[in-house]
Structure formats: structure tokens, C-alpha cells
């Protein structure tokens, strides 16, 4: 048996939309931070047939089976018993597929002695879920062309950001990211503007991280998030992932910022608000978001490490 762990990551410059070729390539460069406070633990062993147990219950995940089939096209991998568990809500906009595929390829690489380096693990994780490519690494991570391998751009200690996650619903989302982004590509008239701006946003965010300019990072990251949600909202049928509490949390972050706190928000394909802040503001942010009606739970996180084998 082999056990691996990985953390979800949250994108500060978002990915929403794929290139029109197979292999799960994002259409735009994107950039994330890896979160230590949420963890996926996956253990695998060789078995008589493939089985998958997610959070203690047998699960049928067509995306996982398709991915394993593709992997078996390149490597000799026996049937596997896979047990994966998340210490946070699954499929609810908290990037459980990112940590899930990153942990799984890391475990398979070890158990089956594939000898893959991190870059190749990242490539295989991307084929499962593009954001999973980024969870192979810790700290600040970019996923960009021409190779579309994730690349670590700064270690977690480079800049001690903290993330306050406000959970406003633990329901699994009703439209998956993969289906949602394809709908956006095909139907949102904002999609072309989204593609046009992405490179500049990516460069601005990378530069802001390099020089630890929180104000500049806040501006570009919040805008990238709101542009992505504008593309989602203008898709047909619309993709609306927020709850009333998500909107109140965004307002709360803006008012914290007006009162001098270093904080910005980002939101993925789900209703949870991730408030990214400097340590000095983390207590105030956690307490302000915890007081918002409809916030079920607050999770606090520092930046974390990449995927690794633990036993
Ligand atoms: O990797 P996927 O297919 O689950 O898509 C991730 C999409 C977002 O989380 C909304 C944005 C991102 O870059 O992580």
C-alpha cells in the first residue's frame, strides 16, 4: 500500500476554458497558491479489480476511470484499490479534484515505480483536471504555455500569505467545472475578452508576487475572479455559483480593505469565498467573515507544500 497527500490550490489568475485539442490544455495561463489547511489523503494498493472509495463510500467517478485508462495507455498499471478522503467539503468549489488527481498520480508513481519526475506528474495530473497540475507543487505555482506543465514560481516562504476560507454551502455543485467552462466557451459573448486579457493578468500577478506588492496582487486577482464569474454568468444557461452569503462576504472583504486591512477575495466554481490576506489582518478577516449570516464554517490556511508520498 502507498499513501500520498496533496493540498488543493486556489487560482489567483483563473483558468476557465480549454484549448480545442485533446489533453486538457487550459486556454489561458493561470497561477495559484497551494493551501496547507486542506488536505486530500489517498492510499492505493494492487487489487483484483479497480475500486474507488471516496470519503469512506464506494464511488463511481467516470472522469477518474477515463484518466486511468489513458494512463494505462502509457504505463503498465495493475488494477487498483483506491481510497481517497478529503478533510474539507468535496466538489464544492474547494478544488478537491486538484488535490485528488495530484495525490493519486503521486501515489501511483510510487506504488508502480513509474519513475516520473514532478514535471511529468504535473502533466498527468493536468490530464485528470487542469488545476491538479498546480497541486504537485507548493507555494506559488504557474501553469502556462507552451508546455502547459505547472512551474513553481516562488516557495511558500517567499511571502507568508494566509487564506481565510468562508464556507457558505457544502452542497456539491450542480454543474462541474469541465462542463461549465465548455458552456462558457461556446455561449458567453464575454469569453473572447476573457482570453484577450489573460496574458496581461498573468504577467501582472507574477510581477506582483515577485516583488511582494499586495496592492497590485489584490487588484489583478480580484479582477481575474470577477471576470471569470462574469463569463460564467453570461453563459447560456447561466452559471451562477454564488449564495447570498458569498456576495455579503465579498462586500465585507472590500470594507475590511477600506479600513486598512491587506485582504482580497477570490471565488472558484462554487459558493466559497477565499480571502487572501497578510498575517497581520488574518484574525480580523476570519472574525468578520465568520459573522456573516450564512457562513457555515471558517477554515484558515497558510501556504502549503506540494504532493508527496507519506508512507
Ligand atoms: O481544474 P478544473 O477543471 O477543476 O477547473 C478549475 C477551474 C477553477 O477552479 C474555477 C479555476 C482555477 O484556475 O482553478
Unreliable stretches:
none
- The CATH class name of the largest domain reads Alpha Beta
Could you report the average pLDDT, rounded to the nearest whole number?
96
Return the structural class. alpha+beta
The SSE string, one letter per element, is EEEEEEHEHHEEEHHHHEEHEE
CATH architecture of the largest domain: 2-Layer Sandwich
Percent strand equals: 15-25%
How many β-strands, per DSSP?
A: 14
- What summary fits the major beta sheet? 6 strands, mixed
Ends: how far apart?
Answer: 8 Å
What's the helix count?
8
Do you know the CATH topology of the largest domain?
Ribosomal Protein S5, domain 2
Shape descriptor: globular
Q: List each distinct ligand once.
A: (3R)-3-hydroxy-3-methyl-5-(phosphonooxy)pentanoic acid
Strand arrangement across the biggest beta sheet: 6-5-7-4-1-14
Topology:
Layout: E1 2-6, E2 9-13, E3 30-34, E4 40-46, E5 51-54, E6 57-58, H1 62-74, E7 80-86, H2 96-111, H3 118-128, E8 140-144, E9 149-154, E10 161-167, H4 177-187, H5 191-210, H6 214-233, H7 244-258, E11 263-266, E12 273-278, H8 279-290, E13 297-302, E14 308-309
Parallel strand pairs: 5-7
Antiparallel strand pairs: 1-4, 1-14, 2-3, 3-8, 4-7, 5-6, 8-9, 10-12, 10-13, 11-12
Helix pairs in contact: 2-3, 5-6, 7-8
Bound molecules: (3R)-3-hydroxy-3-methyl-5-(phosphonooxy)pentanoic acid.
Key features of this structure:
alpha+beta; 4-stranded antiparallel β-sheet; single chain; Alpha-Beta Plaits; globular; 2 domains; 311 residues; Ribosomal Protein S5, domain 2; binds (3R)-3-hydroxy-3-methyl-5-(phosphonooxy)pentanoic acid
Amino acid at each position: 500500500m502507498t499513501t500520498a497527500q496533496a493540498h488543493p490550490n486556489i487560482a489567483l489568475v483563473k483558468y476557465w476554458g480549454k484549448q480545442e485539442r485533446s489533453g486538457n490544455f487550459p486556454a489561458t495561463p493561470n497561477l495559484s497558491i497551494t493551501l496547507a489547511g486542506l488536505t486530500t489523503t489517498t492510499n492505493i494498493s494492487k487489487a483484483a479489480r479497480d475500486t474507488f472509495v471516496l470519503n469512506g463510500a464506494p464511488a463511481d467517478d467516470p472522469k477518474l476511470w477515463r484518466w486511468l485508462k489513458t494512463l494505462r495507455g502509457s504505463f503498465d498499471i495493475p488494477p487498483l484499490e483506491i481510497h481517497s478522503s478529503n478533510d474539507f467539503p468535496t466538489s464544492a468549489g474547494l478544488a478537491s479534484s486538484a488535490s485528488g488527481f495530484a495525490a493519486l498520480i503521486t501515489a501511483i508513481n510510487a506504488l508502480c515505480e513509474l519513475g516520473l519526475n514532478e514535471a511529468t506528474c504535473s502533466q498527468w495530473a493536468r490530464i485528470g483536471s487542469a488545476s491538479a497540475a498546480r497541486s504537485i507543487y507548493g507555494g506559488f505555482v504557474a501553469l502556462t504555455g507552451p508546455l502547459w506543465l505547472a512551474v513553481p514560481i516562488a516557495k511558500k516562504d517567499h511571502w507568508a500569505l494566509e487564506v481565510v476560507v468562508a464556507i457558505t454551502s457544502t452542497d456539491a455543485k450542480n454543474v462541474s467545472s469541465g462542463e461549465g467552462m465548455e458552456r462558457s466557451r461556446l455561449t458567453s459573448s464575454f469569453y473572447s475578452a476573457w482570453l484577450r486579457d489573460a496574458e496581461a493578468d498573468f504577467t501582472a500577478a507574477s510581477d506582483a508576487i515577485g516583488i511582494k506588492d499586495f496592492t497590485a496582487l489584490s487588484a489583478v486577482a480580484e479582477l481575474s475572479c470577477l471576470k471569470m464569474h462574469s463569463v460564467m454568468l453570461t453563459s447560456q444557461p447561466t452559471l451562477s455559483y454564488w449564495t447570498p452569503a458569498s456576495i455579503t462576504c465579498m462586500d465585507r472583504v472590500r470594507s475590511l480593505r477600506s479600513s486598512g486591512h491587506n485582504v482580497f477575495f477570490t471565488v472558484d466554481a462554487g459558493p466559497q469565498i477565499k480571502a487572501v490576506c497578510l498575517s497581520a489582518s488574518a484574525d480580523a478577516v476570519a472574525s468578520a467573515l465568520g459573522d456573516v449570516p450564512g457562513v457555515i464554517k471558517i477554515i484558515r490556511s497558510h501556504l502549503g507544500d506540494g504532493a508527496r508520498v507519506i508512507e
